[in-house]
Design brief:
Helix content is about 5%, strand content about 60%. It is built from one helix and 15 strands; from the N terminus they run αβββββββββββββββ.
């Protein structure tokens, strides 16, 4: 039997006005654990249609502010299939810097966190932990499922997201039409809402761990200076 719900989702997504985000976008988020504010994050996305750079700076609130700041950077290429990272850097106060270098021609990725760099095969769906959520703003429309092999300098993990449908959500910025993506793994659930009206930029991210702990990241401001 034809799955009409999937057909409707595909039609809605494929017929949407698909356009890349503006050349520069600034996004502010708040991160909470079980409703308690933990940190604030600030993202800057810049691209010229061929190359991109995404920078995330975050700092804890209250006692967590004593842990310092986190700065992550992803640089790479914009392709018809989406974003293809070339370099990923994760800097945290008091910790070693994690790095990942993606060589798409040689099909290898080099990771470094502690000790000497190590080289691994580069799968076609390779991505980094910062830029992958922005991939939907640049990739092809109509995808029902998207798989990523995520690298962060420390290691590799596989993430598969399924399009679970259009949904209207309410966040501090207001009400938005969004495309919802869902991932389930080892009794943990991740949900991402992408703004249909704003080039499919991420609006909200929810992670529910197996013990019920909820981590939520919600957009508080989007600007295109």
């Amino acid at each position: 039997m034809l799955n009409w719900s999937w057909l409707l989702i595909s039609m809605l997504w494929a017929s949407a006005a698909w356009a890349a985000p503006p050349a520069r976008v600034e996004i502010s988020y708040e991160l909470a654990r079980n409703g308690m504010l933990l940190a604030e994050a600030f993202y800057v996305l810049e691209h010229d249609g061929r190359r991109y750079e995404i920078t995330e700076t975050s700092k804890g609130r209250g006692l967590l502010a004593l842990r310092g700041t986190t700065r992550r950077v992803s640089r790479g290429l914009v392709s018809a299939e989406g974003l293809k990272p070339l370099q990923f850097i994760d800097e945290r106060t008091g910790r070693n810097t994690a790095r990942a270098h993606f060589d798409w021609q040689a099909k290898v990725v080099t990771l470094q966190y502690k000790g000497e760099p190590r080289t691994m095969p580069l799968p076609p769906e390779a991505h980094d932990r910062l830029a992958f959520v922005f991939d939907f703003a640049f990739g092809p429309a109509g995808r029902r499922e998207v798989a990523f092999e995520l690298f962060d300098g420390r290691g590799q993990s596989r993430h598969v997201y399924v399009v679970s449908g259009p949904e209207r959500i309410r966040i501090p910025l207001g009400d938005y039409e969004a495309l919802k993506l869902t991932r389930t793994h080892n009794d943990e659930r991740t949900e991402i809402w992408l703004a249909s009206e704003l080039a499919y930029l991420p609006l909200r991210l929810l992670v529910v761990e197996k013990d019920g702990t909820r981590y939520e990241q919600v957009t508080t401001k989007i600007s295109t200076p």
